[in-house]
């Protein structure tokens, strides 16, 4: 069991939105299952509600994943708490970030993605920092975002917590400015991760956690070129592939 970022096994298996191949994404059901499946960490998406609470939801709108409608930021927490994903059960409602951190951090590390992409200057980074501090889980989390401003603002509030810069494609524009954005990891999409790039990122002192990898062939390729971890919907499959790769080094 990895109790801090430094102790994460390499390559780490990070349950993307929880064990989302098996349970509705970003619900306590998916996060608790990832714990039982012995993932090394979980990843989740944090957003603000209309009344400033931090909830866990990927999309801006709740339409795709729940039985409700509308934008997260236009509902209060009380309104959102009535909706659920997949089936009506105590562990499938839209969770507060606090609930997930309390449930998961005794067992696993949590990667919090700051997903305030539609409202990049809201105070999500400060809210998340305050919550992490209040719950005393600073050792058990790392924070990432595609939004460099959010990373910058989070790091200003809690410089001791590692941050990861999410990249959709080869970073011609953003990456040259990387010196301005405090980050100890790169979180790239798998489609542009090559052995040379991994070496380059490692030489720059960054860890490399790749998203979102669900095909065994792609998992094998990434494990063989030495990435530090992958985000996957299926932690069981990734652990199986990792064992096979370790058993047959090239
Ligand atoms: O944080 C890894 C991955 O979740 C990033 O992509 O679109 O799922 O937020 P997305």
Question: How would you sum up this structure, described in words?
Answer:
The chain is α/β, with parallel strands linked by helices. The protein contains eight helices and nine strands. Helix 3 (97-104) packs parallel to helix 4 (124-135). The chain starts with 11 loop residues before the first strand and ends with a helix. The model has no long low-confidence stretch (mean pLDDT 95). The structure holds SN-glycerol-3-phosphate. SN-glycerol-3-phosphate is lined by residues 16, 43, 45, 113, 144, 166, 187, 211-212, 231.
Helical proportion?
25-40%
List the secondary-structure elements in sequence, H or E: EHEEHHEHEHEEHEHEH
Tell me the radius of gyration. Answer: 17 Å
The biggest sheet amounts to: 8 strands, parallel, barrel
Low-confidence stretches: none
Structural class call reads alpha/beta
Q: Into how many domains do the coordinates divide?
A: 1
CATH topology: TIM Barrel
Overall CATH class: Alpha Beta
Mean pLDDT: 95
Key words describing this protein structure:
250 residues, alpha/beta, TIM Barrel, 30% helix, binds SN-glycerol-3-phosphate
List the helices and strands and how they pair.
Elements: E1 12-16, H1 28-36, E2 41-48, E3 54-56, H2 77-80, H3 97-104, E4 109-114, H4 124-135, E5 141-145, H5 148-157, E6 163-167, E7 185-188, H6 195-203, E8 207-210, H7 216-224, E9 229-232, H8 235-247
Parallel strand pairs: 1-2, 1-9, 2-4, 4-5, 5-6, 6-7, 7-8, 8-9
Antiparallel strand pairs: 2-3
Residues 16, 43, 45, 113, 144, 166, 187, 211-212, 231 line the site of SN-glycerol-3-phosphate (G3P).
């Amino acid at each position: 069991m990895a109790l801090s970022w430094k102790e994460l096994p390499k390559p780490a298996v990070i349950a993307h939105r929880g064990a989302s191949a098996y349970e509705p994404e970003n619900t306590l059901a998916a996060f608790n299952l990832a714990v039982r499946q012995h993932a090394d960490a979980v990843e989740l998406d944090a957003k603000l509600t209309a009344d400033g609470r931090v909830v866990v939801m990927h999309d801006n709108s709740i339409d795709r994943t729940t039985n409700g409608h509308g934008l997260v930021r236009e509902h209060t927490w009380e309104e959102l708490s009535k909706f659920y994903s997949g089936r009506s059960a105590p562990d499938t409602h839209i969770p507060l970030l606090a609930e997930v951190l309390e449930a998961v951090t005794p067992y696993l590390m949590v990667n919090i993605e700051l997903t305030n992409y539609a409202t990049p200057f809201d105070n999500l980074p400060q809210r998340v920092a305050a919550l992490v501090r209040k719950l005393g889980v600073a050792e058990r989390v790392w924070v990432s975002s595609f939004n460099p401003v959010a990373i910058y603002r989070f790091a200003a509030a809690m410089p001791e917590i590692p941050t990861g810069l999410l990249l959709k494609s080869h970073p011609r524009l953003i990456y040259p400015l990387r010196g301005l954005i405090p980050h100890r990891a790169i979180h790239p999409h798998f489609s542009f991760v090559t052995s040379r790039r991994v070496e380059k990122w490692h030489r720059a002192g960054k860890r490399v956690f790749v998203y979102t990898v669900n095909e065994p062939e792609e998992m094998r390729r990434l494990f063989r070129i030495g990435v530090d971890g992958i985000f996957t919907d299926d932690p069981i499959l990734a652990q199986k592939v990792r064992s096979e790769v370790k058993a047959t080094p090239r």
